[in-house]
Amino acid sequence: MLISEFFIMVNQPTLLSSQLFYENRVVEVTLNRVMLGFWKEIETRRKRSASFNCISKDADHHFLLVSEIVGARETEEEDQTNKDGGRKHKVLLYPYAFTVSYTERTKHHCWRCKDIIFHCLDEAQRQQWVQTINNQLSLLSIRPKRLLVYINPYSGKQRGKWIYEQRVAPLFSRASISTDVIVTESANHARDHLKTEVDLKQCDGVVCVGGDGMFSEVVHGLVSRTQSDSRVDQNQPNQDLVPCALRIGIIPAGSTDCICYSTTGTNDPVTSALHIIMGDSQPMDVCSVHHNNTFLRYSVSLLGYGFYGDVLTDSERKRWMGPSRYDFSGLKTFLTHQYYEGTVAFLPAEDNLGNPRDKIKCRTGCHICEQGANNAHLLSGDHVHKMAEENSDKETSGDGVWRVIRGKFLAINAASMSCACPRSPRGLSPYAHLADGTTDLILVRKASRLDFLRHLIRHTNKDDQFDMSFVEVHRVRRFRFVPKHSSVISEVDLSETSGKKICNQVCTAHPNDDTGHSNWNCDGEILPHADIQVSVHCQLIRLFARGVERGTTFDTYTCSVIEGSSLSWQA
Ligand SMILES: CCCCCCCCCCCCC/C=C/[C@@H](O)[C@H](COP(=O)(O)O)NC(=O)CCCCCCCCCCCCCCC
Ligand SMILES: Nc1ncnc2c1ncn2[C@@H]1O[C@H](COP(=O)(O)OP(=O)(O)O)[C@@H](O)[C@H]1O
Ligand SMILES: [Ca+2]
């Protein structure tokens, strides 16, 4: 926050100002449109450092941003006795207490909900404070007021229901958010409910409690519903899709929780609940996956053939093991060391600002995503790029130059976002972007077990997993894969809009037919076909998140106001 912004906040017209009792002193509390507080100590028994969000040690002026307040309420008896402890005699003079809940940033991108209690002289004063604060919050139009919540009771360690009821619902209630809660009874319950039954105008967002699979269900329900309401045919691979109006919140309770982790920086249910309450908004790319012009599925995180497809296929039979099924199947798949032959054709995102190895991480307010959205807009409709054919292994279509790569692969992964998760805190593609309209296509060619292990281990530390001779990575807008022996990338029109026949390369059958096909892992679901066409749809959905915030707390109001008008800032 800039100092000038701070002064603008301070100089807002006052909505309410009173002398209230706080901790061991009487303070002047002021509320304006953007901040609560800025209270000056009137009477102090002993010097204490206050300790909430924006307060520093020596401060005798403090503030909370209204945008970071969860809600205000009359303080319940027990809260009051617990927190006021030894100050009873003072509290008796100010018996009418109210609590303001607000968000506080803690370590590792986690947020917590903290309370601060003020005491008033009479009931009328208390009512006035609670109402005025809550009225200001209700004016924040980005905040959701009604949410539709789906809980998968079987996600992860089967604690979804408990997590929601114990950790999340109380926060929603503090923020005066009303909810319709549905505990799913079977797979695709949430998807089908959203597709056909819900009146989407009756809510401000959808929340899923579960893992990446549950999120995927909600995405399918919302995206399909939006397309059918707009009469858009999802079966056309190059069709521009209509963005979804409602935002989606994820309360992580699953096995991988990669989408939550990559969009908030942690897999903590309370943090996610607070992002939802604040009304955060993070746009996100969605890949559509087709087989021969028939829509199969959407993907937002990982599309993986070979290693991750095989891990998933094996792990599905071991659901009873919970999240550790992936480690077990991962080890087994690693030992099997299977490779697969096929042809990958892709359309590089050459006009994109970034590349998968540029060391630029996607962070809150990412400018690469902003630029990517502009480019994607230009690329849609009539603004197609017409580029010349450059060399023999490149093919042109109406919208750019396609590259074709044949080979034997241990893994083919498309990461539309970093895919950071607790198992791999930097993710499959650490510099991939949430909303730039591209996916990072990672080709891991046949290599020795030891080399592949070295590559995998690099996902868990700071070393570059792409800096290996058998690994290549491309930032792409579209791609197609054809396994060996399939009817080939032949006479296939990869650009429906241009009408040109391109990519008429024949993936010839290889003599050593001993490898077979793998399956595609599409955000944790197994796809029924190996031959797929994938297109990225820039910013098709929005999450209640803000991306991973940059490291320091400097951006987040660690400021102290020193006597007079000089300000000092602490990192
Ligand atoms: C040697 C250690 C190597 C660790 C490599 C870790 C890489 C992890 C990358 C994870 C990317 C996750 C992308 C997200 C996928 C999810 O959509 C999807 C569904 O999630 P859900 O069940 O919550 O709904 N999840 C998955 O497909 C799970 C992928 C997890 C793969 C774990 C692989 C572990 C590999 C262990 C290899 C062990 C070799 C040891 C040799 C001595
Ligand atoms: N009530 C239910 N019973 C069985 N399966 C369900 C139910 N609700 C959702 N599912 C399915 O469970 C799968 C896994 O859900 P997810 O929340 O991702 O958990 P996990 O992270 O443990 O895999 C998803 O494919 C989802 O469609
Ligand atoms: Ca992306």
TrEMBL record:
Pfam families: CERK_C (PF19280), DAGK_cat (PF00781), PH_CERK (PF25382). One of its GO terms (biological process) is ceramide metabolic process. Gene3D superfamilies: 2.60.200.40, Probable inorganic polyphosphate/atp-NAD kinase, domain 1. It comes from the Eukaryota. GO terms for cellular component: membrane. GO terms for molecular function: ceramide kinase activity. Residues 142-293 form the DAGKc domain. PANTHER family: CERAMIDE KINASE, SPHINGOSINE KINASE. This is Ceramide kinase-like. It comes from Salvelinus namaycush (Lake trout). The lineage of its organism: Eukaryota, Metazoa, Chordata, Craniata, Vertebrata.
